[in-house]
């Protein structure tokens, strides 16, 4: 759980909901609230696009001024204007946060990841099966990048020992 409002994201969210009763850091029930990742319903029932969306992109939780908030991903379908706005926001945030145009850049990686999550959200609302396929693609890309990073780090370590 995050202290203070989460950073602005390219993923569209609903308005935050205040969870009644405030927040007490020592209360074990409230620590575990939302800690369990939501799971998809059994395969014999066809899950709705909202169920799939909440499983793919879990809600954000944070504490602000002693109050506990939760914010779910938007279930509003995207229009052409929303897609154009996403592209503009991505370009603007890349410039604002001074992301490098080439090479390894954690800022650029984070922003493109958010953009891909928003595209997955938009596609899932219209076609849940296609959204799940995009989710698999996203996860595979992340695993491939992690493998390349590990390989790079181990080769650098090997080169340092060899000298």
Automatic annotation (TrEMBL):
<keyword id="KW-0243">Dynein</keyword>
<keyword id="KW-0505">Motor protein</keyword>
<keyword id="KW-0175">Coiled coil</keyword>
<dbReference type="GO" id="GO:0030286">
    <property type="term" value="C:dynein complex"/>
</dbReference>
<protein>
    <submittedName>
        <fullName>Uncharacterized protein</fullName>
    </submittedName>
</protein>
<dbReference type="InterPro" id="IPR019347">
    <property type="entry name" value="Axonemal_dynein_light_chain"/>
</dbReference>
<dbReference type="GO" id="GO:0005930">
    <property type="term" value="C:axoneme"/>
</dbReference>
<dbReference type="Pfam" id="PF10211">
    <property type="entry name" value="Ax_dynein_light"/>
</dbReference>
<dbReference type="GO" id="GO:0045504">
    <property type="term" value="F:dynein heavy chain binding"/>
</dbReference>
<comment type="similarity">
    <text>Belongs to the inner dynein arm light chain family.</text>
</comment>
């Amino acid at each position: 759980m995050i202290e203070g409002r989460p950073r602005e994201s390219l993923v569209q969210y609903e308005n935050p909901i205040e969870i009644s009763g405030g927040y007490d850091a020592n209360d074990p029930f409230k620590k575990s609230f939302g800690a369990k990742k939501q799971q998809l319903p059994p395969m014999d029932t066809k899950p709705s696009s909202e169920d799939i969306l909440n499983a793919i992109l879990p809600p954000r939780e944070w504490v602000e001024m002693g109050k506990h908030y939760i914010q779910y991903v938007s279930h509003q379908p995207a229009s052409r204007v929303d897609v154009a706005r996403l592209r503009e926001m991505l370009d603007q945030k890349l410039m604002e946060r001074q992301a490098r145009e080439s090479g390894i850049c954690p800022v650029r990686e984070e922003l493109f990841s958010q953009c891909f999550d928003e595209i997955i959200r938009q596609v899932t609302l219209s076609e849940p099966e296609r959204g799940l396929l995009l989710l698999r693609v996203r996860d595979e890309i992340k695993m491939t990048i992690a493998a390349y990073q590990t390989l790079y780090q181990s080769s650098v370590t090997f080169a340092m020992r060899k000298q």
